[in-house]
Amino acid sequence: MEDNSNKTIGNGEHEVEMTFLDHLEELRWRIIYSLIGIVVGAIVCFVFIDFLVDTVLLGPSKKVGADLQNLKPFGQVFLYFQVAIVGGFILSIPNVFYQLWRFISPALRKHEKKYILSIVIFSSFCFLFGIGFAYFVMLPLTLNFAAHFGTTTIKNQFSIDEYMSIIFSVMLGAGLIFELPMISFFLTKLGILTPTFMRKYRRHAIVVIMVLAAVLSPGTDPVSQVVLAVPLLVLYELSIIISKYSVKKS
């Protein structure tokens, strides 16, 4: 007996189609479930907020000997709430990906929907691996360059707002960039992307990756740009393999 609970796009199966309003209602609930997960994660992070701020986020600055300053009366109050919210998002990323894939599951074939849990796990792993790569590799190189650049006559002191902005943007940006294999998988399933297309324009992709590394890298030094470009190239090649695998399974 066929499952009539979801709409399947482009697979020829006869299922009850969801209307536009049904899709909006589904999207609304998925967003609500995601926000609930983020709030719960933020509460958990707030319990350990001192450890997250003093040890985790300020750790890179201590290693390179950077001096940080708070220039606003309630700067640290807002900082703690910001850390809790961002930390809640990172902590709840598996739930966010689960809600996302549940929303787009009608675009998958019936036999592919059973792999949603595996997809969520792999998506979460890629995102968290990207954050780890940014924290342990990119940030130390960037902050070390910024803290010791220039003449010793001028003391380099950083605003805590600017410092946290760099920390969050680099970590979240790297997490999103490391989702490239999953984006390749999804676009291939929709018929928008093919491994042949990706191989044909590999040289063009390399140029684009080098430009992106120069733009997205928080430091102006070539070392941090190369550090970002290398994993992007690896991710692109991995995306070709995943795209090829997705075509075979279609």
What does this structure look like?
The chain is mostly helical and 250 residues long. The protein is built from eleven helices and two strands. It has a two-stranded parallel ribbon. The protein is flat and about 65 Å long.
Beta-strand content bin: under 5%
Class by helix and strand content?
Answer: mainly alpha
For the biggest sheet, the summary is: 2 strands, parallel
Please, how many helices?
11
Features:
mainly alpha; two-stranded parallel ribbon; 73% helix; 2% strand; flat
Break the fold down into its secondary structure elements and pairings.
Blueprint: H1 20-47, H2 49-57, H3 59-64, E1 67-69, H4 75-91, H5 93-104, H6 116-148, E2 157-159, H7 160-177, H8 180-189, H9 195-200, H10 202-216, H11 222-249
Parallel strand pairs: 1-2
Helix pairs in contact: 1-4, 1-5, 5-6, 6-7, 6-11, 8-11, 10-11
